[in-house]
Amino acid sequence: MGRPLIGVSTYWESSVRWGVWDWPAALLPAYYPRLVKAAGGLTAMLPPDDPETAAEVVARLDAVVVAGGPDVEPVRYGAVRDARTGPPAPERDVWETALIEAALASGTPLLGICRGMQLLNVALGGTLVQHLDGHTGGHGVVGRHTVRPVPGTRYAGIEPYEASVPTYHHQAVDRLAEGLVVSAHAEDGTAEAVELPGEAWVLGVQWHPELGEDTKVMRALVAAARARTAAPVS
């Protein structure tokens, strides 16, 4: 069996300069494909596109990762914008919501990282805290803190012990979407992982595994992708 193909959503920047060019660009920090490779998968970049194509795209993948990035637009969860919320990224909000819905509908393994976890909660009807302190190492500096797994959850099956994780976020889950369960907490009580119970593999983590050395979460996603591919078609 070949290595699973893991689709990872990307940033979308209207103006990026390299060489003599200043063009729009779809970007993905190299840490993501490096982590996917270390976990035994292959990476396909998924730049924002027509949401009507999301189901077709997901059908060609073995798993989906919704990457970190800009704050989710508050209007998507019925909130008034806080002054500390970052600029909107409407192309990503629309496209990644469509990817999440397509993955859930098809049973394709799905991992949300930071923004990806937040958007998973919003896509399923939850809301977000628009600002909290203490979850970065300072402006532009990745911090670390401890997360505690909730026994009996999928995440606890991946990492049953407290773990120090790389973190950089200022938003988090507020009202948890119906169907999701919290599977890890930070020391201050912030939800650090959420998941959908059941057969489908769906997990969101608030931290950035791509910025650390621990490959457990991504290896679990790749294993879920392998298992789904190997399963007999009914």
What would you note in describing this structure?
The protein has helices at 31-38, 54-59, 90-106, 115-123, 154-158, 216-230, and strands spanning 5-9, 11-18, 21-27, 42-46, 63-66, 110-113, 128-129, 143-149, 163-167, 172-173, 181-186, 191-195, 202-205. With 234 residues, the chain is α/β, with parallel strands linked by helices. It has a 9-stranded mixed β-sheet with strand order 4-1-5-6-13-12-11-8-9, sandwiched between helices. It has a two-stranded antiparallel sheet with strand order 2-3. The mean pLDDT is 95.
In brief:
The protein has 234 residues and is an alpha/beta fold.
Q: Report the count of strand segments.
A: 13
* Unreliably modeled segments: none
Shape from CA axes? Answer: globular
Mean pLDDT score: 95
Question: Which structural class do you get from the secondary structure elements?
Answer: alpha/beta
H/E topology pattern: EEEHEHEHEHEEHEEEEEH
The proportion of strand residues reads 25-35%
- The DSSP helix count reads 6
Major sheet: order of its strands? 4-1-5-6-13-12-11-8-9
Task: Give the termini distance in whole angstroms.
Answer: 20 Å
Residues in helix, %: 25-40%
Query: Nearest-angstrom radius of gyration?
Result: 17 Å
Largest β sheet strand count, sense and barrel closure: 9 strands, mixed
Pick out its properties:
234 residues, two-stranded antiparallel ribbon, alpha/beta
Element layout with pairings:
Elements: E1 5-9, E2 11-18, E3 21-27, H1 31-38, E4 42-46, H2 54-59, E5 63-66, H3 90-106, E6 110-113, H4 115-123, E7 128-129, E8 143-149, H5 154-158, E9 163-167, E10 172-173, E11 181-186, E12 191-195, E13 202-205, H6 216-230
Parallel strand pairs: 1-4, 1-5, 5-6, 6-13
Antiparallel strand pairs: 2-3, 7-10, 8-9, 8-11, 11-12, 12-13
Helix pairs in contact: 3-4
